Amino acid sequence: MREAEPDQRRDMMENPVRNPPVTVLGPRLAADIVAIVREGSRIRLDYSPQSLALVDRAIEGIRRENPPAQAVTRTLLGFGAYTGEVLVRGARAGWVDFDAHQRDTFGQPFGIRTPDGRVWNPLGKAVKRFENGPQHSLRLFYLAVVGQAQV
Q1: Residue 120: strand, helix, or coil
Q2: What backbone torsions phi and psi does residue 110 show, to the nearest 5 degrees?
Q3: 11 pLDDT exceeds 50?
Q4: 47-97: per-residue pLDDT in tens?
Q5: DSSP state, 77?
Q6: For residues 123 and 112, what is the distance between their CA atoms, to the nearest angstrom?
Q7: What dihedral angle (degrees, nearest 10) is formed by the CA atoms of 73, 79, 82, 88?
Q8: How far apart are CA 35 and CA 21, in angstroms?
Q9: For the chain, what is the largest distance between any 2 Cα atoms, rounded to a whole number of angstroms?
Q10: Residue 19 confidence (pLDDT)
């Protein structure tokens, strides 16, 4: 792992809120969407795999309204982070920063790594769920990741 340059280290130390590590950012985005959905829609997300069916329904409801993707990107990334946090809690995955190649491939700065060493892109999967519909179910994504991780 390459060490940060002195100016980068100083910036990270002086601005820890602006540059939180992915192990803080992923769970924070997930917690934010849990609060937003609870307040706005009275849906209780409990970080269980079953709750991902509620997330799929929420994204489908957003799709039906047909907003521009840019208007809902932050919400979708929150749902993706929530999906990632469900995997962290239920499948012993961990949050990881993607390397340059993975960022290019996935279009996201971070994701999760399962104990078998595979990396997954739950943030991108939530965006695909919005863009392409039910065939990109987050509940089925969870089941696929857990099944693949156990192979």
Answers
A1: strand
A2: -155, 165
A3: no
A4: 999 999 999 999 999 999 999 989 999 999 999 999 999 999 999 999 999
A5: H
A6: 10
A7: -80
A8: 21
A9: 49
A10: 72
Single-letter code of the amino acid located at 145:
V
Q: Report the distance separating Cα 140 and Cα 52, nearest Å.
A: 9
Give alpha helix (H) positions in 15-113.
Answer: 22-41, 52-65, 69-91, 100-106
Query: What count of residues does the chain have?
Result: 151
The pLDDT, as a whole number, for residue 148 is 66
Q: Single out the residue of 67, 64, 59, 65 nearest to residue 127, CA to CA.
A: 59
Rg of the Cα atoms in the chain: 16
Instruction: Tell me the whole-structure pTM to 2 decimals.
Output: 0.85
User: How many Cβ atoms from other residues are within 10 Å of residue 148's Cβ?
Assistant: 13
Counts of helices then strands in the chain (DSSP H, E) = 7, 3
On the CB side of 138, how many CA atoms lie within 13 Å of its CA?
37
Torsion angle in degrees (nearest 10) through CA of 126, 141, 29, 108: -60
Sheet holding 110-113, edge to edge: 94-97, 110-113, 119-120
Rounded Cα–Cα distance for residues 76 and 93 (Å): 20
Tens of pLDDT, residues 100-112: 999 999 999 999 9
Find out whether 54 and 108 touch, Cβ atoms under 8 Å.
no
